[in-house]
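Lecture notes, part 5. Sequence design as translation. It can be helpful to think of inverse folding as translation between two languages: the language of shapes and the language of residues. The source text, in structure tokens, appears below.
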């Protein structure tokens, strides 16, 4: 299957591509902002590692929000 250029894509495919791109960027920015504002003792692991991981498509930011932040009950 050959890749289509932007001009060859249907309007629905173009819209879907733009929506997914916006969602990915918004999720990445939310993760980066949370990492910046959250104290290091409330993050599992080094902040720098989570910053780099948050740059990986959807997987990085979602991984940070699920595994990177400590739960309120776990905070001492």
């Amino acid at each position: 299957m050959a890749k289509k250029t932007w001009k060859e894509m249907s309007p629905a495919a173009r819209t879907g591509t733009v929506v997914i791109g916006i969602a990915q960027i918004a999720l990445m920015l939310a993760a980066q902002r949370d990492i910046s504002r959250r104290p290091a003792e409330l993050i599992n692991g080094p902040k720098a590692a989570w910053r780099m991981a948050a740059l990986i498509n959807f997987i990085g930011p979602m991984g940070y929000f699920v595994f990177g932040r400590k739960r309120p009950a776990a905070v001492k």
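The translated text above is only one of many valid answers, since several sequences can fold into similar shapes. Helices lie at 11-37, 47-53, 59-68.
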